[in-house]
Specification:
By secondary structure, this protein is mostly helical. The protein has helices at about 20-50, 50-75, 80-110, 110-130, 140-155, 155-170, 170-200, 205-245, 250-260, 270-285, 285-315, 320-365. It has two domains: about 50-145 and about 170-200, no CATH class; about 210-360. Helix 4 crosses helix 10 (about 270-285). It is globular.
């Protein structure tokens, strides 16, 4: 009999594997990378949290280096390098201490006058609250005043304990400042040698990228530091002159407060000027306080539309939303120090990214046939 043709074996039955949507796969791929980056950032902040005093000292030393290095280079043209650095650092320390001593003398000299004006100003504010549109009764204001006095009396011990604990931290602050001055001396004198040594210790394939990143980071940091100093100085001069002309007490200390507050973008200056409004209201009445409020608006416009764009053009352009988010995130993570450090840190990271992308693009263009 003829043999029947052999039939091919049936294909193996396999279970239908569910297909993962393309969008979900891409999202998952990005998700684990984001998680990895978040873990690295969390670990970095944890390490900095344990050694935050050292980190603050190094940051202050870098700021001092960015500001004082050009002065030391200028003096080094006619003097030896070590003497030029010593004169620059010593002169800056004496200048800062002199400003604080002057402010202390102004506050001490106006203490009695200011207390008298505050008492009369408080009575003036109570009188305004009794008139339209507030129309608060005298009994309510008296009760509020007695409750405020009772609150201060009750928590007097807590206030004293807080003051004593704050006084105990003076040693820590002085230690951080001494370490910052110590580091700044070496950074100003021979910071480029330390950077060259650091790059020489890296593997060869990383040295060129590290050099590009370091140049971009330092250029951005110095530009931002110089720009913020300009903004702070202009704001302080405007505030000091305006408050002096208006006759507001403590014009010089308030100008100094405005100078330091300007280092916190967007929110620092309004907070400092709000303190000036309270003092003007208590000492000079609502008319002068209203003029100080108008001063807040004017300085805010000058800072937002003229000075800060100039700063960002020197360093790197950041969107105001990015600046606001960086300031808030830094304040949540590390308080006032975090709010000050956040914006220059974001600017440096972004400039390094742009520099490395530009370098890689140029290299690929050169390698292309």
């Amino acid at each position: 009999m003829p043999s029947s043709p052999e039939r091919p074996p049936p294909p193996p039955v396999t279970a239908a594997r569910p297909t993962v949507p393309e969008g979900l796969r891409i999202a998952a791929a990005y998700a684990w990378r984001v998680i990895a980056v978040a873990l690295v950032v969390l670990g970095a902040f944890s390490v900095l949290g344990r050694f935050h005093r050292i980190a603050v000292a190094v940051f202050l030393a870098l700021v001092a280096t960015a500001v004082l290095r050009p002065i030391a280079d200028l003096l080094a043209r006619g003097l030896c390098r070590a003497l030029a650095v010593g004169l620059t650092v010593t002169g800056s320390v004496v200048l800062v201490l002199g400003v604080f001593v002057l402010v202390g003398e102004v506050v001490a000299g106006q203490a009695s006058t200011l207390a008298r004006e505050f008492r009369s100003g408080f009575d003036r504010i109570l009188g305004l609250l009794e008139k339209p549109p507030f129309r608060l009764s005298a009994d309510t204001l008296t009760d509020f005043q007695s409750q405020l006095g009772q609150l201060l009396t009750t928590h007097r011990s807590a206030v004293v304990d807080t003051a004593l604990s704050g006084a105990g931290r003076v040693v820590e602050v002085l230690t951080v400042l001494a370490l910052a001055v110590f580091c700044s001396v070496f950074f100003i004198h021979s910071g480029e040698r330390y950077w060259a040594w650091f790059r020489a210790e890296l593997p060869t394939r990383f040295r060129s990228r590290t050099a590009v990143a370091g140049r971009a980071a330092w250029r951005t940091f110095t530009g931002y530091t110089h720009g913020v100093l300009l903004v702070a100085a202009v704001n302080a001069v405007l505030v000091g002159v305006a408050l002096t002309l208006l006759g507001v007490p403590l014009a010089l200390p308030l100008a100094l407060l405005e100078f330091f507050a300007a280092f916190v973008p967007l929110i620092g200056s309004p907070i400092a000027l709000a303190v000036a409004v309270v003092i003007a209201l208590a000492a000079k009445g609502p008319l002068i306080a209203g003029i100080v409020v108008a001063l807040i608006v004017i300085i805010g416009q000058i800072e937002g539309h003229l000075l800060h764009p100039l700063v960002m053009s020197w360093a790197v352009r950041l969107h105001p939303v990015v600046v606001a988010l960086a300031v808030i995130a830094g304040a949540i993570a590390a308080g006032v120090i975090g709010a000050i450090v956040a914006v220059p840190l974001v600017a440096v990271v972004w400039s390094v990214r742009q520099a490395l992308r530009g370098r890689d693009g140029e290299r690929k263009g050169q390698e292309a046939p």
